[in-house]
Amino acid sequence: MKIIFHVDVNSAFLSWSAVKRLKEDPSALDLRTVPSAVGGDVKTRHGVITAKSIPAKKFGITTGEPVMTALRKCPGLILVPSDFQTYRQYSGEFIRILQRHSGMVEQVSIDEAFADMTGVPDPLAEAAALRAEIREKLQFTVNVGISENKLLAKMASDFEKPDRTHTLWPSEIPEKLWPLPIRELFGCGAATAARLNSFGIRTIGDAAGTDVRILQAILGEKGGAYIHRAANGISSSVLHPEEEDAKSYSNEMTTAEDITLQNYAEALPPILRRLSGKVASRMKRDGVRAFTIGVMVKTGGFQRHSRQTTLSLPTDDPAEIFRTADQLMHRLLFAEEGNAEPDGEQEEAEEGLFGRGEVLRLVGVSAAKLTNEKEVYRQLSLFDLPPGETEQEKAQKKAQEEARKKAQEEAQKREAALKDMMDRINRRFGDKAVKKGTL
Question: Of 106, 112, 126, 348, which is the active-site residue?
Answer without folding.
Answer: 112
